[in-house]
Amino acid sequence: MKKENIKRNTMLGIFVVTSVLIFLLAIFLLGSEQSLFRSNFSVRANFTDVNGLQKGNNVWLAGVKIGTVSGVTIIDDSTVQVAMRVQEDLHKFIKTDATASISSEGFVGNTIVVITPRGYGEVIAENGILPTGHQTSTQDMLNALQATADNIGNITNDLRRLMYSATQPGTIGYLLTDTTLGQEVRLAIDNIETTGRRSSTLAADLKQMVNGIQGNEEGVVNTLLNDTTFASTYEETLRNIRTAGETAAKASTDLNQLVGKIDNNNNAAGVVLNDTAFARKIKITAAELSQGMEKFNENMEAAQHNFLFRRYFKKKRKREEKDAKE
Amino acid sequence: MKTAETIGSAPQKWQAFFIKIADIYRFIVRIFKETFSFPIEIEELLKQCYIQGNRTLWLVSFASLLAGVVFTKQSRPSLIEFGAESWLPSLVSLAIVRGLGPLITALICAGKLGSSMGAELSSMNVTEQIDAMEASGTNPFKYLVTTRVLAITLMLPVLVVYSNMVALMGSYIAVHFFSQTTFKLFFSQAFESITFLDIFSTLIKPILYGFAIGVVSTYAGYYSSRATVGVGKAANQAVVVSMVMVFVIEFITIQVLGTMR
Fold this sequence. Notes:
The complex is a heterodimer.
Chain A (H helix, E strand, L loop, with lengths): L2 H31 L6 E8 L10 E4 L2 E13 L2 E9 L11 E6 L6 E6 L11 E3 L7 H30 L3 H7 L3 H35 L4 H7 L1 H36 L4 H7 L1 H29 L2 H19 L1
Parallel strand pairs in A: 1-7, 2-6
Antiparallel strand pairs in A: 1-4, 2-3, 3-4, 5-6
Chain B lengths: L3 H4 L2 H26 L6 H40 L6 H39 L2 H7 L4 H40 L3 H10 L3 H27 L6 H32 L1
Helix pairs in contact in B: 2-6, 3-4, 3-6, 4-6, 4-7, 4-8, 4-9, 6-8, 8-9
């Protein structure tokens, strides 16, 4: 063989061998990615819906890829059995009470099986069936999003109605359209500010007054506030006032009854107070009595000068003069 | 001036077309027969493998490297828009292994090797070297056509493996430039989405491409006209038809592989 041919064929051999090595490396990487060159064990799980899970999809345990899905089989109309190949060295972490659920790698990621360990059961047997759980899937999130969107739609409609009614004549419409309202509000705020300032001054004065009261230990207010002995006196006074009030109320009632009785014409007082004819008679009688009394006085004057009584009246006058001198 | 005689009527055209199809069919059958019949022209086969493989490697590698970088840079903004930049290695690797790598390699080979084969055989035909070989007792078909078709059929998958690797490296360079992704993570993510069927298809497709390019180019050269213009025509025909055939085969293989996924 020519020297040139040897060199050419050597180069060709290196070229082909390198290519084959690269290809084998790719196969190895692919195999290791799918856990083909490791010892594995199989577990299964029955789902009602696998959400597009396919052979080759990943299996996660606590967020770490531990294997791949090796088969998806429909058992009956409501059961899909998923077979998984999981790394043998992680077998001990998968217990019988661990749950398998369908999830996805992120929002737009591939569908995956997530095994959630509980840690209380026994290590699952080869080809054992894991209980299934539920993970929040993209579909769940979309459903929640749809519900939120519906709510936002309703709120927007309400807001639209509210805004429409705000532009119509009414309280809110007036608030929004009245141009002088701003100035009035500003004025009101100014007033509030002034009031606040005054309140502050008032509070300062009040404080000063309170301090004065507290400082004057002999004052009435301080005594009222601080003298504990005064409390009993005060209570007794109040009690007396209450008793007096009650008595006054009773007296008032009695007086009321008395007045009621007086108003009645069936008794003497009532007749005296209310019967006008009787009053006239009394007036005439009084007049006659007055006249009678004048005549009686004249008679009595005459009697004093009578010899029968003269001596008595003389003695009486002397006794009175003696008493006056003493 | 074109006349009815030179153009030919429509039925005659169709007849010529079917005759050509029959010729190509006989050509392919003969290639198979000559490939598996003794003596095997091993020296010429290795020489052709070297020319079509080693000599094309740098061109294919350079094109693939640029394709990997460009494809990654073009895909990145769209993925960022969806918040899926981390999917870039998976996307690029799938695109390269399933389609881009084999296609770029095949098109470059169709351009470089197809034109070379067509022009070479055509010029040998024009200079009556093929007749001379027949006269000297050498089987020109086996020596010239079979070895070339076999060489490109064997070398194209090898070139595609290199092409894929270099394109992935180019993609890694682009990804690392933007995201500082580690080499291990990039290839881990890249191989996560690839399946064995993809690896299988990346080997099967170039075998079909190579065979098609080889057949088309050698046919164009071997049966070229004896005129001097025949050389250029044969080279042109080899390149154009080879490239069209590459896309036709790509379409068919995608359909077939799609049913297997």
